[in-house]
Amino acid sequence: MTPLDRIHVSLPPPRLDGAVSLEAALGRRRSVRAFASSPLSLHVLSQLLWAAQGVTSRRGFRTAPSAGALYPLETHVVAGAVEDLPDGVHRYLPNEHGLVVGKSGDLRGELCREALHQRFVEKAPVSVVFSAVYDRITGRYGRRGVRYAHLEAGHAAQNLCLQAVALGLGSVVVGAFQDEGVRRVLGLGEEEVPLYIVPVGRPLRS
Known about the structure:
Structural class: alpha+beta
Strand order of the largest sheet: 1-4-3-2-5-7-6
Shape: globular
Distance between the termini: 47 Å
Protein name: SagB-type dehydrogenase domain-containing protein
CATH topology: NADH Oxidase
Order of helices and strands: EHHEEEHHEHHEHE
InterPro entries: Bacteriocin_Proc_Enz, Nitroreductase, Nitroreductase-like, SagB-type_dehydrogenase
Strand content: 15-25%
Organism: Desulfacinum infernum DSM 9756
GO molecular function, one term: oxidoreductase activity
Helix content: 25-40%
CATH class: Alpha Beta
Largest sheet: 7 strands, antiparallel
């Protein structure tokens, strides 16, 4: 563990109930590509991250299933408009329900460029980026483990999108981007592969 890994931001505890049913969230979920400039609260970000990869049992099981409970995914926050959170890239720590402070500064524009200039990536107050460390799962499952990691990213992203709807937010999933460019923006090591970008924010009303 490096000194940087010891710089944490504690997140508010997640709520385990809500006013929107699962059925309603499923019915309302749509891809949103226009976001208001208003910031998100740290409570909202906490809920989104918990829905995506939060721990839900004393044994360490999470909100999204993982083959062999090996959890190859890492979850990153590219924040540009979150109250009480510095702009920058932060890594989610599921077991602690907190964030490791990473690269500083508003990097949404750089992420947008690496996502083939899809402008909503820059406009959203936050993007959640899922990456995978394949070695965590291929040691047991061989090359099949890569597929399992991709399936897990889909589970986590859907959880995130449904939680966004339940909070009155919009989201869109992005798979078109330059892998090496996103790795550079996030400061990832060579063992970590970016898989999915999910911008989240309040839908811009016309």
